[in-house]
């Protein structure tokens, strides 16, 4: 039985592809789970429309990410920490701390999207990478000062 995939499916193929599967697998799993549709001209048009909509949505998200990256490019955050001897800080500044500092400035960035290249264990200025989209990332400055 030929089916048209509505979404990427690891073992079969990508969205929009026509694949040949056993009829029972299509009827009992793929079609009820909305992974695939039977191959008909009407269903083919439905899949093409979904694919176009998905492409437009992805472009819109990427455009928003680029706009946010432009705003974030000039942003710097300051982390005030307690220090011990020789200006060594207690603990480290984590991506969660940076996320909280960005929220205070009005940017809602998840900690999973923040990459700290080197551990922040001393006072100084650090460059932190923020990934906003699959293709869009920017760098912000992190100032670590004693409080």
Structure write-up:
With 147 residues, this protein is of the alpha+beta class. It folds into two domains: 2-62, 3-Layer(aba) Sandwich (Ribosomal Protein L9, domain 1); 69-146, Roll (Ribosomal Protein L9, domain 2), CATH 3.10.430. 34% of the residues lie in helices and 31% in strands. The chain is built from three helices and nine strands. The protein has helices at residues 23-30, 41-72, 95-104, and strands spanning 2-5, 18-20, 36-38, 76-81, 88-93, 114-116, 120-122, 124-131, 137-146. The protein has a four-stranded mixed sheet with strand order 4-9-8-6. Strands 2-1-3 form a three-stranded antiparallel sheet, with helices on both faces. Strand 8 (124-131) and strand 9 (137-146) form a beta hairpin. The longest helix has 32 residues, at 41-72. The N and C termini lie far apart (69 Å). The mean pLDDT is 90.
Question: What tags apply to this protein structure?
Answer:
147 residues; alpha+beta; Ribosomal Protein L9, domain 1; Ribosomal Protein L9, domain 2; 2 domains
Give the helix/strand layout:
Blueprint: E1 2-5, E2 18-20, H1 23-30, E3 36-38, H2 41-72, E4 76-81, E5 88-93, H3 95-104, E6 114-116, E7 120-122, E8 124-131, E9 137-146
Parallel strand pairs: 4-9
Antiparallel strand pairs: 1-2, 1-3, 5-7, 6-8, 8-9
Question: Topology as H/E string?
Answer: EEHEHEEHEEEE
- Count of β-strands: 9
Radius of gyration: 24 Å
Q: Biggest β-sheet: count, sense, barrel?
A: 4 strands, mixed
Count of DSSP H/I helices: 3
Low-confidence stretches: none
Shape: elongated
Strand content: 25-35%
Query: Which structural class should the secondary elements be placed in?
Result: alpha+beta
């Amino acid at each position: 039985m030929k089916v048209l995939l509505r979404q990427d499916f690891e073992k079969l193929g990508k969205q929009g592809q026509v694949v040949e599967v056993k009829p029972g697998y299509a009827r009992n799993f793929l079609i009820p789970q909305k992974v695939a549709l039977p191959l008909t001209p009407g269903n083919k048009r439905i899949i093409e429309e979904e694919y176009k909509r998905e492409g437009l949505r992805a472009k819109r998200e990427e455009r928003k990410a680029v706009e946010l990256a432009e705003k974030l490019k000039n942003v710097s955050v300051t982390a005030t920490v307690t220090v011990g001897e020789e200006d060594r800080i207690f603990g480290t500044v984590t991506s969660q701390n940076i996320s909280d500092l960005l929220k205070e400035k009005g940017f809602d960035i998840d900690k999973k999207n923040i990459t700290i290249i080197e551990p922040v264990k001393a006072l100084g200025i650090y460059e932190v990478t923020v990934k906003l989209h699959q293709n869009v990332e920017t760098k912000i400055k992190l100032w670590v000062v004693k409080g």
